Amino acid sequence: YEVEIVFSIEDKPLGTAGPLALARDMIETEYFFVLNSDVICLYPFRNLLLFHKSHGHEGTLMVTQVKEPSKYGVIISERNGRISRFVEKPEEFCGDKINAGIYCFSRAILKRIEPVRTSIETEVFPKMVLDGELFSYVLDGYWMDIGQPKDYLTGTCLHLSWIEEKSARDSRTPDPDYRPNTIVDESATIGERCQIGPNVVIGRNVVIEDGVHLSRCVLFDGVHVKRGSFINSCIIGWDCMIGEWCRLEESCVLEKNVRVADGIHMLGATVCSHKNVNKHVREPTCIL
């Protein structure tokens, strides 16, 4: 994409705010975005920036609506979007908007932050609220924190559903060989009598032999699944080999170049790179 990437490296942990001060000289524009790396949504940067410019203050925090706000810190805003307070895990309903982990800031915010360990959520934002300098922008569409394997799979399903809906709006014809919400790289090889989907992502140069069933899973580049195997709700890393007639389910995570022997049953296992799995794993465990 011809995008230049510049890294600012911390010699010691600086929290969620300190790194902004550390990278101060690298921020050359009047406005800039800050994102948590483990969230997925449609990233409406253009609309977020336009809203931020319209109110002219130091910060805009993107919020998303949740069904169970008592699990989170709730953000209370005025009609114009100005944030009035934060309520941590409220026992009584006071709102249903939470921090989505995506921000737009003006350079003026950097005056508030020193290159020391500082939390932007608990130390910087409350002071901005007191000064009337922090606004909220409501995210339209799906959102998910994908920092855990189960949530990563849920986020994948949400994004695949959005792609499917967009394809329907654009009058695209779905691929008759796969079930809904499925993306298969054109370099992948798919055998006969396979069930692919729903909610499956298959990367480059993946080989799926005959009679394989895949659902709610992500297969990274170079994975090989031998005949008759069943994979549901799993993440299969680069260059893994799944033997014949295996069954993997309940959020198994295989890192790079894992080898699973024929006929193995795995439930909720996490397997580190370059390991061989030669016996059943029928309860959640980590194989180092």
UniProtKB/TrEMBL annotation:
Residue ranges annotated for the Mannose-1-phosphate guanyltransferase C-terminal domain, each copy included: 180-287
GO molecular function, one term: mannose-1-phosphate guanylyltransferase (GTP) activity
Record bears the keyword Plastid: no
Alphabetized InterPro entries for the sequence: GMPPB_C (IPR056729), Hexapep_transf_CS (IPR018357), Mannose-1P_guanyltransferase (IPR050486), NTP_transferase_dom (IPR005835), Nucleotide-diphossugar_trans (IPR029044)
PROSITE patterns: HEXAPEP_TRANSFERASES
EC category: transferase
Pfam families to which the protein is assigned, alphabetical: GMPPB_C (PF25087), NTP_transferase (PF00483)
Keywords annotated in UniProt: Nucleotidyltransferase, Transferase
Pathway: Nucleotide-sugar biosynthesis; GDP-alpha-D-mannose biosynthesis; GDP-alpha-D-mannose from alpha-D-mannose 1-phosphate (GTP route): step 1/1
Domain of life according to the entry: Eukaryota
Annotated ranges, domain Nucleotidyl transferase: 2-156
EC annotation from Swiss-Prot or TrEMBL: 2.7.7.13
Family label: Belongs to the transferase hexapeptide repeat family.
Stated name of the protein: mannose-1-phosphate guanylyltransferase
Taxonomic lineage from the root: Eukaryota, Metazoa, Ecdysozoa, Arthropoda, Crustacea
